[in-house]
């Protein structure tokens, strides 16, 4: 089975509610969907949600990287030569992780279909379902309380609260939500780089003294501030998770060498795909650092890939794969299924995806 053709398209999917963080507000998911077509006619699906404020990748840059540079390099390559294809993608151009991830996912999908293997089995086959949290967007305390209570009513037992734009208001938000949902619901905070190291330490210590029982704090400081992240980690009891700092294997190696965080958030769009996610998971497991599997605001194509990877790896103990739940529509036919707060990975080959409705091809 050889790669014959690569088609690039996109889908625009409205959100149920605006998605707000300390970095941005989004009203619809604009996802680049790649089809890698084999000489047998089999199709592998991949995706790349342009997330310029995090990955630096725009829609135009993703399309150009796939169409003009990365895609032509793997045309004609044998799908069975997975290592060779991944090496070619990595060496094809610097950065452009989302574009690489889209092709990486699609090729892995084809690889699974070639051998009749669901991807979660390729990555270890540990389990077939997992719990995901649900993200509560950054809003007024009152609106966040309403959203949190609605999530609990829908069956979610872990909530990820977006904070980071106002220290005093953040404290109010967290206290109000903890009071509203009670002590049995897990609360995770994501500051999206919104605090300085000293602000983070003061704020987290206040949460600890007040007994708010925060499970973890994700990326409290700027992505490049590894020393600041370590400063926070060393001075609080609450577990600190690296997200934007933990971009790819090199950055994760540095973080782990510095003992700069307690947890790592793996995202395919940061890492450049599944093959680099394997490297990150192996590094973390060697150092005894647990991982969360996260995502961008993307369609179920990428969520299916991330869930399949997470299902195979014991070092991934948490998932934040709720993006598809936040969308008002699901154009992806097949793939991962949702049952309240549970993710169910497909047993069909590859990602288990057969089509993407509303996919609009982008011309050459």
Provide the CATH architecture of the largest domain.
Answer: Alpha-Beta Barrel
Q: How is the biggest beta sheet arranged?
A: 8 strands, parallel
Secondary-structure element pattern, one letter each: EEEHHHHEEHEHEHEHEHEHHEHEHEEEEE
Overall CATH class of the largest domain = Alpha Beta
Mean pLDDT: 96
Task: Estimate the global geometry from the Cα principal axes.
Answer: globular
What Rg is obtained from the alpha carbons, in whole angstroms?
A: 20 Å
Taking strands numbered 1, 2, ... along the chain, how are they ordered across the largest sheet?
A: 5-6-7-8-9-10-11-12
Output the CATH homologous superfamily of the largest domain. Answer: Enolase-like C-terminal domain
Structural class: alpha/beta
Indicate the proportion of strand residues. Answer: 15-25%
User: Helix count, per DSSP?
Assistant: 13
Tell me the span between the first and last alpha carbons: 24 Å
Would you give the CATH topology of the largest domain?
Answer: TIM Barrel
């Amino acid at each position: 089975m050889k790669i014959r053709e690569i088609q690039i398209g996109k889908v625009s999917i409205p959100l149920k509610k605006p998605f707000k963080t300390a970095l941005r507000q989004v009203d619809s998911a604009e996802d680049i969907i790649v089809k890698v077509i084999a000489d047998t006619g089999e199709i592998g699906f991949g995706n790349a949600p342009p997330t310029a404020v995090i990955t630096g990748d725009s829609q135009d840059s993703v399309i150009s990287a796939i169409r003009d540079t990365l895609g032509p390099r793997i045309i004609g390559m044998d799908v069975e030569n997975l290592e060779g294809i991944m090496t070619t993608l990595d060496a094809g151009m610097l950065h452009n992780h989302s574009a690489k991830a889209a092709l990486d996912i699609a090729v892995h999908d084809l690889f699974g279909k070639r051998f009749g293997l669901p991807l979660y089995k390729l990555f270890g086959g540990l389990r077939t379902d997992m719990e995901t949290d649900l993200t509560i967007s950054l809003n007024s305390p009152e609106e966040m309380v309403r959203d949190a209570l609605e999530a609990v009513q829908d069956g979610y037992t872990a909530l990820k609260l977006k904070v980071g734009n106002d220290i005093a208001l953040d404290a109010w938000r967290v206290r109000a939500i903890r009071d509203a949902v009670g002590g049995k619901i897990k609360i995770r905070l994501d500051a999206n780089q919104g605090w300085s190291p000293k602000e983070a330490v003061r704020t987290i210590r206040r949460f600890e003294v007040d007994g708010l029982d925060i499970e973890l704090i994700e990326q409290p400081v700027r992505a490049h501030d590894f020393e600041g992240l370590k400063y926070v980690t060393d001075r609080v009891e609450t577990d600190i998770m690296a997200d934007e700092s933990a971009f790819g294997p090199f950055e994760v190696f540095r973080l782990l060498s510095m003992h700069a965080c307690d947890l790592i958030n793996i995202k395919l769009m940061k890492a450049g795909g599944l093959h680099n996610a394997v490297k990150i998971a192996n590094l973390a497991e060697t150092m005894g650092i647990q991982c969360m599997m996260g995502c961008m605001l993307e369609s179920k194509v990428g969520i299916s890939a991330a869930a399949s990877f997470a299902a195979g790896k014991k070092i991934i103990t948490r998932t934040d794969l709720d993006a598809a739940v936040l969308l008002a529509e699901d154009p992806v036919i097949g793939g991962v299924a949702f049952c309240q707060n549970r993710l169910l990975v497909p047993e069909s080959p590859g990602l288990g995806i057969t089509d993407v409705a509303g996919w609009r091809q982008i011309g050459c």
